[in-house]
Amino acid sequence: MATFRSLRHSAPEPALTHPCLQIRNAGDAHKVLEAVRRNMLPLIRQRLGASERSQLSSGNVFVWEECEGTEEGGLVRWTDGRRWSESRLRGDFLFYQEKVELSSEERYAKAARRGGKASGSPTPHSAFPKRKNRPAKEGGLTKQTYSVSVRLPGAGNRTQKWHLVAYFSPTEMERLPTPDNDERLRDVRVPAGVFLTDGAWLPAEERPLAPRPSPVQVTEKFSLGVGQMPAMNPVRIAPRTPFQPYQPPAPEQHHHTQSVVSRVALPPISSLVYPHAQLDANTGFAYASQPTRATALTAEDRRILSRLPVAL
To answer: What SS3 class is residue 242?
Structure first.
């Protein structure tokens, strides 16, 4: 029994998916993709030839299948032989503006730069404008791209990457027919769960090597209702610092001066007693008992106290 994929390979490869169509939104794109999934419109699996590239015109629509380079059929990337600006995201689509072609001098300089990078030798600075500074081509086209992951019949849960590429002239876009005006597309209904929308998809040459997050300031405004609690930030515990032994300060050195210690009057030692805490049986709280008087000073105590510069 022939499979869905083998039936596709048995047919001759077409040049394009639709000759003249305007893709206004994601709904139009899904109609075209569903028509391709039902074999109502052809799927592109080969690169465009030189004659097909030269015949690109406003309204041409292509749906091509992406592969990883090891599978049969499909394309690794889409090439049309034209110069385009950097991508601009508008809604669910990426748009590219056609730029002027490279001159013979620019092609030579570009080849020299590539050769220098391959050999590791430094390349001279190019005086030619970069892609973002290259002027737009007069009467040039605009390229519109959209990408999805599609579930094919008989493939189970496995999905395949499909891309839609549409070309149009800004001056002729409003005059192009829409899927609602096409006899094959106007009654197409897209079932739920068939297309997993990826939205705007960057080609490999435009994907950043690493994510470059930009700081975003977000201000949250909210009001608390009855019974609501504000969100609490998690508590951050600072790491314990290592124990540092106490170092007494070094004595100050006084030169040619004599330190004078002021004499401080202190209360009698006999009055300095430590209140012994007792537990109240009724309340359970500790309270201080009546102070008890200290015992009389011994001769050794008086000898030590006599050496202190205080007045008793």
So the answer is: coil
CB 73 within 8 A of CB 45: yes
Tell me the C-alpha distance between 100 and 108, whole Å: 16
**Secondary structure class of 302 (helix, strand, coil):** helix
Tokens standing for 37? 């999934």
- Whose structure tokens read 């496995």? 158
The structure tokens listed for 246 are: 């106490």
Q: Which residues contact 93 (CB under 8 A, 6 or more apart)?
A: 23, 144, 145, 146, 200
Domains of the chain, by residue range, sit at 4-100+135-204, 269-307
Banded pLDDT at 3 (limits 50, 70, 90):
very low
* pLDDT score at 10: 47
Average pLDDT over residues 142-146: 98
pLDDT tens per residue across span 164-192: 999 999 999 999 999 999 999 999 999 99
The closest alpha carbon to 144, from 110, 176, 167, 171, belongs to 167
User: Coil, helix or strand for 112?
Assistant: helix
Nearest to 134 by CA among 98, 81, 164: 98
| Length of the chain (residues) | 312
CA distances (Å), origin 110, targets 123, 126, 129, 162:
10, 9, 12, 32
Bridge partners of 149, per DSSP, are 161, 196
Q: How many CB atoms lie within 10 A of CB 129?
A: 12
Residue-level pLDDT at 213: 41
- Residue 28 and residue 34: Cα distance in Å, rounded? 10
Q: Do 175 and 19 contact (CB within 8 A), yes or no?
A: no
